[in-house]
Amino acid sequence: MKKLVLPLFCLFLLAATACRxxxxxxxxxxxxxxxxxxxxxxxxEGCYAVExxxxxxxxxxxxxxxxxxxxxxxxxxLEGVERSxxxxxRHPEEYEAIMKEVSARIESLSDSGVEDLPE
Length: 119
Description:
The chain is an all-alpha fold. It is built from 5 helices and no strands.
């Protein structure tokens, strides 16, 4: 019986820690805001890639301004964006749901022929 106590205790600890869900820190974008932010970011990035072939010196002021505007629009900092990406990378189920929604939004925009940068 004593031989079973340690393995059962270890199994209990594993189960208890596996069920614990990390709370999203307040400085991390919630799923809806992250979806909106990424949708806008990928639109800007697409414009930037097309016009400059990923060279900042060739990007128009409008594209560079749009990137800065996104930061202001979502009331975040670059550090906040990094923390949000870090958080969602540790929560792949949440990130997958966000990316599916982002992909659907971008696809619907491309199907409708929308070419404007986000405001």
